[in-house]
Amino acid sequence: MGAGKTTVGKELARKLNYRLIDTDQSIENDQSKKIKDIFTEKGEPFFRDLETHKLKELANQHNAVISTGGGIILKDENRLILNDLFTIYLKADFENIFKRIKQDSTRPLLLTDDPYTTAKDIFISRQAIYESFNPHILTDNKTPIEVADEIINLYNG
């Protein structure tokens, strides 16, 4: 959450002349609802099932950059799919992440009385799972263009 997946994904897709497919946006389009409304009306487990369905649908796409929501890694099934694809973990310091997301009212998990603590708890609870993905690219103090170039170098390397 807030590591720059969509922003970097846009730049990467542009550089490669690929399509960008954002799983959250795609789910919103399919459901004709915003993510936060899906969470409110149907709950997080329902949304996580939608993510799994969407990931399965997109796993065989060619000439596409797929940007996922940060919580997609919570389900074992999704991690197995992602591990079969060229998947990059965009890693950022929590303080940098929070600066990016603190004003974003579209993030349903942060609609709490204490978004900082909530975000920090989410970050800590997911960190080991994120760390299990290789390769990692540190995004702190880098532009989206620099991160996209690193991804291209890794992919071609």
Short description:
With 157 residues, the protein is mainly alpha-helical.
Structure description:
This protein has helices at residues 5-16, 23-31, 35-42, 44-58, 76-83, 94-101, 115-131, 144-156, and strands spanning 19-22, 64-67, 89-91, 136-138. It is mostly helical and 157 residues long. It has one domain (5-141): 3-Layer(aba) Sandwich (Rossmann fold), CATH 3.40.50.300. Strands 1-2 form a two-stranded parallel sheet.
Give short descriptive properties of this protein:
Rossmann fold, 9% strand, 4 strands, single chain, 157 residues, globular, two-stranded parallel ribbon, 57% helix, 8 helices, mainly alpha
How is the secondary structure organized here?
Layout: H1 5-16, E1 19-22, H2 23-31, H3 35-42, H4 44-58, E2 64-67, H5 76-83, E3 89-91, H6 94-101, H7 115-131, E4 136-138, H8 144-156
Parallel strand pairs: 1-2, 3-4
Q: Please give the radius of gyration in angstroms.
A: 15 Å
Mean pLDDT score, rounded? 91
Termini Cα gap: 27 Å
Record field, number of beta strands: 4
Largest sheet: 2 strands, parallel
Oligomer: single chain
CATH architecture: 3-Layer(aba) Sandwich
Low-confidence stretches: none
Q: What's the arrangement of strands in the largest beta sheet? A: 1-2
Please state the overall shape, judged from the principal axes of the Cα atoms.
Answer: globular
CATH topology label? Rossmann fold
The level-1 CATH class: Alpha Beta
Q: Tell me the number of structural domains.
A: 1
The helix content is: 55-70%
CATH superfamily: P-loop containing nucleotide triphosphate hydrolases
Note the total helix count: 8
